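COMPLEX REQUEST
Ligand: flavin mononucleotide
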Amino acid sequence: MSIQIDLTPEANDIVSTLHRPVCDLLGCTWPVALAGMGGVARSELVGAVTGAGGFGFLGMVREPVALIREEVQRVRARTDRKFGVNLIPAATHPELLDAQIATCIELGVPVVGLFWDVVPEVVRRLRDAGIIVVCQVGSLRDALAAEDAGAQVLIAQGREAGGHVWGDRPLAMLLPEIVAAARIPVLAAGGLADGADVATALSFGAQGVVLGTALIPTHESFAHAYHKQRIVDAAEHATLLTDAFHINWPRGARVRVLANSVTDGQRGDPFGTVKTVIGDEEGRPIYLFSTDSPLRSMTGDFEAMALYAGTGAGRIDTIVGAAERLHRIVADAAALLDSGAAPTHPASGVHDAPLAGAKREALLAALNELLEAERAGARVTSQTATEITAPELRQLVVSIRQDEARWCGVLTKAILSLDATPTRRTGAFYEKAMAIADLSQRMAFLNRGQGWVVRRLQALLPAIHDERIRNDLLAMLDSHEKNIRRVEIQLASTGERA
Ligand SMILES: Cc1cc2nc3c(=O)[nH]c(=O)nc-3n(C[C@H](O)[C@H](O)[C@H](O)COP(=O)(O)O)c2cc1C
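STATUS: Structure written out below.
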């Protein structure tokens, strides 16, 4: 069966807004790719995404060649379009990797996606066989190494990504660096969940995006219903980075998952000597602390498995068909870009023009709003620190206060650099927070305030083209994300004693 894509006039408009050269290279209609999620991205999901105009990678890390063969055939039965196979050399025994590569070459797989260490010999072998090679990287250094090795497309993976996370840079920092330095198309990955995210990534210069988490809660994904539902139920900031799920992978590799009994420390030492079986996949034991996530083919204690999810999980509320999710995302992204509400492409040269009129006013209003909020945060933490007796929480609040004061300075300087006078007001957040007597509840409220700042910064950053202000605000974003997580951890352990 081959799925045909008939484009309505409306869809044609979306194509003309979203089309980028990488679509021609990968043979897709929309610049949106399904991540090569091991276990989860099987032929059913790849067929659905590719058939709906996106691009799909089969997640085949460490899979036997017989399964690769079957899955490739099944994708081909569903679509005539190009698709990819994802492999991870660092997590695969060399003999198996060799056989996997030989199979991809023999089957004439159109695209292979590689992740983790850049291995030039693997890239070269695939390229020599006429296969398009896509490398997912987490740093500028690896991006350039992959390009030198012969990769034709890069995926810049931000630390917001679900699953294994290679680098430590937020996408908003990593993406512009790689786009500026690379000569090949760059796709953005990590925490992207809706049309606004796609519009923003494109405006940062990405030619497209890669979605993992957003496509897990779909009818076609091979994730177990338990994993899908946990993503749907996830609150904002429900994910964290950990190296606790390590069996099968190089030591120290970090993954982003939903918090569970393993990450809360209730299941013992992940690096102890005892191996505990907590599940089964058709006769294969699933071990506690392994990198296996719950799949349709498994039984066992799913709560204790690696529940991979990116930071966008909190914004995914339903289990739908993959085509429906994809079409909603591309339609929203195109509408935003067309309306001009989304940020302008940094390469368009608009940023070289002096900021004037309504744009300058809007930027100043946003910076002043943030300044008021940070001032409120600094005052709340300053006073709260004097009321806390638990030493660790107190130390944390003092360090957040220092950060907030620093960001007040940064915002003040940014406003002055636009020849304007910084606001002297303190945000209403201060009164609201101080009205909460219970310290744990006040800290939780502070975290919601920090979350608000994160969202405002994410919305604002694409419109900032002054490099110095932009770098300062990126650092501010990063620091807020870290502080939110630090407060969450402290509240979980000392909240009661605060
Ligand atoms: C369940 C899951 C499994 C993943 N497995 C792989 C994998 O086998 N190979 C790979 O290159 N990336 C893998 N990733 C990472 C993705 O390639 C991608 O970076 C990530 O999904 C993007 O972030 P998002 O999940 O927030 O969309 C996985 C991600 C998830 C969520």
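REMARKS: The longest helix spans residues 357-387. Residues 35-38, 40, 59, 61, 86, 88, 115, 136, 157, 160-164, 189-192, 210-214, 293, 308, 310, 312 surround flavin mononucleotide (CB under 6 Å).
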